[in-house]
Amino acid sequence: MRNDVNDVNDVRVTKNVVWSGTWVAERLGVELAGDDGLRELLGLALRRNPRRAHLLVSNVLGKHVPQRPSVVRRSGYELGLRVRELLGPEEAARAVVLGYAETATALGHCVADGLGDAPYLHSTRRPVAGTAPAGGFEESHSHATSHLLLPEDPALLAGAGALVLVDDEFSTGNTVLNTVRALHARYPRERYVVVALVDLRAPADRHRLDAFAREIGARVDLVTAASGTVRLPDDVLERGRALVAEQEAAAARAGRDAQGAPVPAPRRERAPATSATPVASVTRVDLGWPEGLPDGGRHGFTPAHRARLEAALPGLAERLARALPAGARRVLVLGFEELMYAPLALGVALEGRLGTGTEVRYSTTTRSPVLAVDDPGYAIRTRLVFPAHDDPADGPGDRYAYNVAGGGFDAVVAVVDSAADTPALHAPGGLLAELAAHTGHVLLAVVPSYTPAPTPVPPPVPAHQEPPVLPEPLRGPAFSSYAPDDVGWLLQDLSDVTLEAPTEEREEAIQSGGAHYAESLPVEYQPSERYQELFRAALDASAARVALAVGTVTETVLAERGHAPGRDGGRPGRPVLVSLARAGTPVGVLMRRWARQRHGLDLPHYAVSIVRGRGIDANALRWLAAHHDPADVVFVDGWTGKGAITRELAEAVRKFEQAEGVSGFSPELAVLADPGSCVRTYGTREDYLIPSACLNSTVSGLISRTVLRADLVGPDDYHGAKFYRELADADVSRDFVAAVAARFDEVREAVDVQVKEILSADRTPTWEGWAAVERISEEYGIHDVNLVKPGVGETTRVLLRRVPWKVLARAGAGADLDHVRLLAAQRGVPVEEVDGLPYTCVGLIHPRYTRGATGADGKAVTDA
To answer: Do 661 and 534 fall within a single domain?
Structure first.
């Protein structure tokens, strides 16, 4: 296969001999109609996605289709010139450009170049230690957003000039409008400009931009290179699913994988990702990258940075040119996910350095899986598959390079940042090995990952200011239905405040960015008699299994931290259990019971609040540090889903220690169940029904989830919660604990065996759950990981508290899902069985919820 992409009179767009959307258009009846040249900009491909079967593939973006670097750069640069003309020189000089990761990071850079001296920032999926987020989207209210904003200069987004938002396409407009709404609430300004290569809004969406501008009281302009409409037949989803299944079956018969790539050796037979075995045919090139020059716009890219890069590019290109094999006539510069602009700039410079005698192309690797079909009328002809090779915090799983195999490249220059120059990159089966199998020469150029200076630590409180006296923990029966010695709640009682709001209103406010989920409470679900019977049956059936997990996680904690010699050289350490209210609190109560029943240990237990996106209750940590050795504290939760709270806890502890000068708190989390493989200390990694997930407050001491609202929680207050005394007749909190504790004796031997196995095993988190959630988010067209809730416990929460869209259930899942099926039936939510689901089930929150929206079945969301 040779990519049939030819330049036409050295203009910006490309023209294919055969339109690369023909194959999909003919089989699905998809029609791309619009401006002249729209087909030259876009092709079509297929993906497994129940909401949108087709994928628009840009020929000038440099992501999926290798293209001349100068063509890719010019496509963005000319858009920047148009924005400059729109704004005028004076306003253009005050503008800031914001690009979307990962696809539009280089496009946004090029728009900023064309605009003139505009500083540039792009969103990122990679958290950076020491850099405080300035926001995020699609969910600025929540941790683990799909995109973070991490500017080195916090003032970058705070100026009064126009904000220019750049994405590759403008389709529904939801992502851009939600971003503007969230940023406008924090950094209001008078003008926004939305820039995209193509405007493909449906007629029904075209009025929304003007209405939105009136809503926020600002001007919002749109600048695109072309516009049109994608027309779809009514049965496109069914036909798309059938076509994907047909291609997968054909690929399987041909000895290829489900997406058209050759079947590799089984993953378990590959060398481990940590193997440092080098790929012999790779040549490392020392670029001589200027010291201190950012590798891109992840933390901001200023006009001064742009000038330094332009001055250095001739020398960088010269080093690459000298390293290329003699006689190379077709060279690919391959960037890496978000790292698109530096490889593009190198490609443009190399193109100029080598001249017309060598054909230079540019593309990048990606996280997005797409079906490959080797046909001239299809946009994705081939794909390479390889494991992720950067920091695990950026997400594990497979990565892809499209249209590289069969591209006829004499040499491939792989450009990565230093965070991605890991053993996994060089291991057999890694990116470099996959490239080496399809070209005679692979060059590796590593750009240093730019890390900003850590966010300054606030100055300490002056010595003459006494710290506030924090209240003692609340205890039952005055606060909660637990016994006083079961748990002390480091919370303030907000029982007399009306905090509940209808579920639909909360969901609308949360997803629109108008409110944080912790500012209100859902109305407490009151289970029907049938559901209560289901809970009791589930508790009878699973009490022993839960007891085994409780014993395992407790003994693991004691082995690691409880029975080791004390720091004073004599006494054994005594763990202090600190559960994350409220799902972690029943687990903390049970761990305390196990330690007392088996070892006679009386472990202190407290419950504290942690809020996604806002961290842990710092006042609670201050109280703990004043009354216990921080090194004894063990944070406890019920289960992991995709690991958002695990990451939130680690970041919150780091910030607290920086701000307070207090050290010793371990950011690690001990959980009953870790199906997402996010922690080292767990009772099980199976995804099964923990009966405490079936209910809300009535299995958690009658305590609500925690509340953090500025008008209720001051700087010297604990986070708040409500005690639902009026639900005492329905309370089963102590019944749940008693039922599980009654099975402790019968599981003791099994616990000892399991703990021995766990302590001798490699418990390094793989974050498999996070990768699965990202895959599901893409496959189902949600594009927002926080609307995907994996595992039995998280799915139950979705059905009890949120606006559910559907439930994915592993094919053949049994009684563990009886309560999920019942709740789903009561709320009119479809349950879809899925083969190969890594969790027992996954709950999907209705994406981009608005009042009156309809679900996939056409029913109003508010009827769910």
So the answer is: yes
Tell me, yes or no, whether 591 and 541 share the same domain.
Answer: yes
Band (pLDDT 50/70/90 cuts) for residue 533 is confident
Which range of residues forms the domain containing residue 834?
768-863
- Taking each continuous run of H as one helix and of E as one strand, the counts in the chain are 22, 35
User: 399 - beta bridge partners?
Assistant: 386
Tell me: do 752 and 651 sit in the same domain.
yes
Residues 601 and 743 grouped into a single domain: yes
Do 378 and 311 contact (CB within 8 A), yes or no?
Answer: no
The residue among 369, 403, 305, 368 whose CA lies nearest residue 109 is 305
Q: Where are the beta strands (DSSP E) in 750-862?
A: 788-790, 804-810, 831-834, 841-845
671 in the same domain as 600: yes
Q: Is residue 38 a part of any domain in this protein?
A: no
Supply 769's token pair.
């759950």
- 793 falls within a domain: yes
Average pLDDT on 201-227 reads 87
Q: Are 724 and 564 in contact (CB under 8 A)?
A: no
- Residue 222, token pair as written in the block: 């749109």
Q: Which residues of 701-740 are buried (b: 16+ CB within 10 A; e: fewer)?
A: bbbbbbbbbeeebeeebbbbbbbbeeeeebbbbbebbebb
Q: Are residues 751 and 832 in the same domain?
A: no
CATH number of domain containing 846: 3.30.1330.30
The answer, yes or no, to whether residue 213 has pLDDT greater than 80, is yes
Alpha carbon dihedral 33, 36, 37, 42, in 10-degree steps, equals -10
- Residue at 82 is within a domain: no
pLDDT-wise least confident of 167-171, 425-429, 432-436, 660-664: 660-664
Lookup: tokens for 816: 């563990």
Q: Looking at residue 692, which CATH number applies to its domain?
A: 3.40.50
pTM of the model: 0.64
Per DSSP, helices labelled H in 675-767 are 733-741, 748-760
Number of domains the chain is built from = 2
Question: Is the same domain home to 683 and 587?
Answer: yes
Strand, helix or coil at 561?
helix
Report residue 825 as tokens: 């039936």
Which positions ≥6 away from 326 have C-beta within 8 Å? none
Secondary structure (3-state) at 825: helix
Burial tier of 498 (Cβ tally within 10 Å: 0-12, 13-18, 19+) = exposed
In SS3 terms, 154-171 reads as HHHHCCCCCEEEEEEEEC
